[in-house]
Write a structure and sequence with these properties.
single chain, 299 residues, alpha/beta, CBS-domain, three-stranded mixed β-sheet, 10 strands, 36% helix, flat
Length: 299
Amino acid sequence: MRRMPHYKSLDRGPVDFTSKLRKEEGEALRIARRDVTTVPPTFPIKRAAELMVSRNERRLVIAEPGTGKLKGVLRSRDVVDFLGGGERYKVIQIKFRGNFLSAVNEPVRTIAPERFAYAEEEMSLGEVIRLLLMEGVGGVPVVGKGLRVLGVISERDLIYRLPPSTGKKVGYYMSRHVVTIDPGETVLDAARRMVGMGFRRLPVAREGRLLGIVTTMDILRYLGRSEVFHRMGSHGVEDAMGVPVEEIMRRDVAVVGPDTDVGEAAALMRERGFGGLPVVSGGRIEGIITEHDMLRLLV
């Protein structure tokens, strides 16, 4: 567990309207959401995945029953890792000898990262933003004395503070190195790529043309179907994850151009409930901008 480490601001610099964020102290708790979805360390992985899908939560806070003491954070990417995307899949392979149905009833503490970040209630918003950027996470629990969970704060909560017009273009803040996946590749291919490269979403494209997008939550929704879990139990994870990405991808993708104002892109994310937008120019993908990228305007 870590409190905020020292962080050197990015050289692109902040915009003027955020200066107040850096001066206010103890604002983390004020902006944090108090309706935190928490689970105990013994909560089964399968039920955790179902809870994420039903509540559309990309992360669950793990806390001790009764005391509410923070014990960890489980992300959707950790579950995808466990279900075939990465190192956590070894739990199924080694400990349970490929028995998926037994493995999914393991407690969440089995696959939750040992190291996790959190914010203390007296932190300023500037400190919280630097923490998210430094740790490369999309959200953190906010804790009080004794690590008692008081709330949770995410990139989305902070991006809401961006004005409709920032004077900053998407092309300046977007990620230009876009990792895509072909619609004919499998869900397992997507899972492994996301986990291996630390992404929550992949644009689905062919020859540079955007066809859709697939996220870790899309994979969990697919795997959460009862028939898929049954198929995994009788035929194995690889078989169930062997369907083409085009069967689970979202086709109604919102896009922006390189010259779009970042504030306008943020408003579109809020309206559509997306955490990232492909950047398209001339019908071809030029980049991708995420909530995480936009945090740099607030530092």
